[in-house]
């Protein structure tokens, strides 16, 4: 059985975008990032993806060439009238309107033993972590204090114990520090 | 002159205490989890990192809250300052309390005055900052040179945040060192000025 993995990049002060909603400072080298061992491995080991409606809308209706060519489960209250472009035999959208647990169930079935990768957003990640449905966190820290924006970890209703499984030295692409954790259950 | 440094332990979700921190629970209820790496049998690399920090300290600047909790907590500072009686400690406060230990100097005219006094006694050694509010004030003023954040693999969910109320333009950092110890990861940053 694959794992449910949540991955995100945050500033040292815990924000996933700045006050203006921009993520530019957190991903200064997208091209370099695409070639990292971590992303390559994520692409190899992912069998299905879960994302929230905002992440889906950030694709601007076109997922052609998206890094995860897998079934994608979009958690939303309202199913869009037509799905974004970029669907193919591997990448297919399913809109899930009955909650994150249902999304996890469907994604696990579709992943067929590979990992389910949760790419955001924040509220979905928090719901999943709180419900104990995430197995692994991959948190990249960028060396900056943004001072404001959207917090990655906010209002989590309980304490969650983790175990550090990987720490990447600095000097990686664009200065990020890669941390990976197993959720202790 | 030495550097102005912040050295502090933080949960992955950004808290330096659990909720309800007070004299009875200096790190909040359940917050001792944060210091497991220090008091639960420190590793060789963890010891090296803390020794390096402590040996470089020439003076400390702390806030009123840290002072109050430190001197009033049983098994706290044991009648001394946060680093014993050899490290002069400057307390940012509005009211000077009754205190007979000369290790403490109470500063009522602001953070820059406190830092100037601390640097004068620290000489070539570092001035270390303690407490979230104190750290925030000096970060906002652009007066911090280096930070070492010990990230503990736990999500506390609530408590006292280290990085809050900054209300500044983004502060650029340079990641200068990453050390992995059992149960904690030591991240060191230089503040880019």
N/C terminus separation of chain B: 17 Å
Distinct helical segment count of chain B: 5
SSE sequence of chain B, one letter per element: EEHHEHEEEHEHEEEEE
Name of the CATH architecture of chain A: 3-Layer(aba) Sandwich
Q: How would the global form of chain A be characterised?
A: globular
**Largest sheet, strands/sense/barrel of chain B:** 8 strands, mixed
What structural class results from the helix and strand content of chain A? alpha/beta
What fraction, in percent, of the residue positions of chain B are helical?
Answer: 10-25%
Alpha-carbon Rg of chain B, integer: 16 Å
The greatest inter-chain interface is formed by: A-B, 37 and 36 residues
**Looking across the biggest beta sheet of chain B, what order are the strands in?**
6-5-3-7-1-8-12-11
Count of the separate structural domains of chain A: 1
Q: Percent helix among the residues of chain A?
A: 10-25%
CATH C-level class of chain A: Alpha Beta
- CATH homologous superfamily of chain A - what is it? Dihydrofolate Reductase, subunit A
Radius of gyration of chain A: 16 Å
**Percent of residues of chain B in beta strands?**
25-35%
Structural class of chain B: alpha/beta
Could you explain how this protein is built, in words?
The complex is a heterodimer of chains A (185) and B (193). Chain A has 185 residues and is an alpha/beta fold. Helix content of chain A is 22%, strand content 29%. Chain A has an eight-stranded mixed beta sheet with strand order 4-3-2-5-1-6-9-8. Chain B has 193 residues and is α/β, with parallel strands linked by helices. Chain B has helices at residues 36-39, 44-55, 64-72, 111-122, 132-140, and strands spanning 4-11, 15-17, 57-63, 82-85, 89-92, 104-107, 126-129, 146-152, 154-155, 160-161, 171-181, 184-191. Chain B has an eight-stranded mixed beta sheet, sandwiched between helices. Chain B has a two-stranded antiparallel sheet with strand order 2-10. In chain B, strand 11 and strand 12 (184-191) form a beta hairpin. Strand 7 (144-145) of chain A pairs antiparallel with strand 11 of chain B.
């Amino acid at each position: 059985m694959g794992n449910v993995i949540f991955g995100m990049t945050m500033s040292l002060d815990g924000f996933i975008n700045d006050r203006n909603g921009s993520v530019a400072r957190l991903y200064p080298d997208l091209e370099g990032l695409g070639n990292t061992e971590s992303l390559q491995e994520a692409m190899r080991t992912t069998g299905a993806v879960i994302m929230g409606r905002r992440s889906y809308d950030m694709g601007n209706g076109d997922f052609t060439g998206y890094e995860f060519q897998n079934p994608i489960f979009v958690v939303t209250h309202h199913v869009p009238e037509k799905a974004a472009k970029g669907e193919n035999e591997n990448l297919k959208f399913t809109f899930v309107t009955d909650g994150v647990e249902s999304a996890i169930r469907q994604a696990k079935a579709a992943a067929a033993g590979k990992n389910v990768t949760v790419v955001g957003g924040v509220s979905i990640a928090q719901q999943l972590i709180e419900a104990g449905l995430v197995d692994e966190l991959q948190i990249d820290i960028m060396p900056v204090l943004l001072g404001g924006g959207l917090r990655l970890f906010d209002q989590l209703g309980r304490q969650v114990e983790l175990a550090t499984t990987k720490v990447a030295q600095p000097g990686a692409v664009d200065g990020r520090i890669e941390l990976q954790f197993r959720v202790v259950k | 002159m030495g550097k102005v440094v912040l050295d502090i332990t933080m949960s992955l979700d950004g808290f330096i205490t659990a909720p309800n921190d007070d004299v009875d629970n200096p790190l909040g209820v359940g917050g001792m989890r944060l210091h497991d790496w220090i008091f639960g049998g420190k590793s060789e690399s963890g010891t090296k990192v803390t020794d390096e920090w402590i040996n470089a300290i020439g003076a400390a600047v702390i806030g009123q809250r840290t002072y109050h909790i430190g001197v009033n907590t049983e098994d706290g500072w044991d009648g001394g300052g946060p680093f014993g009686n050899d490290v002069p400690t400057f307390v940012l406060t509005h009211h000077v309390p009754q205190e007979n230990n000369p290790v403490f100097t109470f500063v009522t005219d602001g953070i820059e005055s406190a830092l100037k006094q601390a640097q004068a006694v620290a000489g070539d050694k570092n001035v270390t900052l303690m407490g979230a509010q104190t750290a925030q004030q000096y970060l906002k003023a652009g007066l911090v040179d280096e930070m070492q954040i010990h990230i503990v693999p736990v999500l506390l969910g609530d408590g006292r945040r280290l990085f809050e109320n900054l209300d500044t333009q983004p502060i650029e950092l340079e990641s200068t060192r990453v050390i992995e110890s059992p149960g904690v990861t030591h991240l060191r940053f230089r503040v880019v000025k």
